Amino acid sequence: MTTRAPSDARRSAMAAPIPLEPPVIKATFPASGPESGSVVNITSIASTGLEPIMVVYAATKSAVDAITRVLARELGPKKIHVNAVAPGATETEGLHALGVPGSDYEKHIVSQTPLGRLGQPSDIASAVASLASADAAWITGETIRVSGGQR
Questions:
Q1: Residue 96 domain-assigned?
Q2: pTM to 2 decimal places
Q3: Alpha-carbon separation of residue 3 from 7, 80, 138, 144 (angstroms)
Q4: C-alpha neighbours within 13 Å on the C-beta side of residue 63
């Protein structure tokens, strides 16, 4: 049984773009703009993972983690909190396009996930909504893992 990602997944990981979030986020909150707000970036547990085939993807997601921390400090004085959600393996169109569902690779991922399943988009959306809400006004500069316990 192979536990490696399908070759398309490896190619996709190597083609990950460098994040362009800071200019977009700063344009959303110009210097004379609102005095409160919320930014929730999407990163990945791959930013701290050790999958050897994911070096470029992990590096770009690590950049999102750093952007989150730095922008939290930069936008904090305006009462804008900046956080990130780091999903684990999540059943998305992209995962389906790569042929992961039903593969040995999916079985490997699920076996490494304490909750024993792939994440669903609604799992991620709930975490994003929570971080964007007023209930999270004292949380900033954090990356929250939403991974079913996958490490």
A1: yes
A2: 0.80
A3: 12, 42, 40, 26
A4: 12
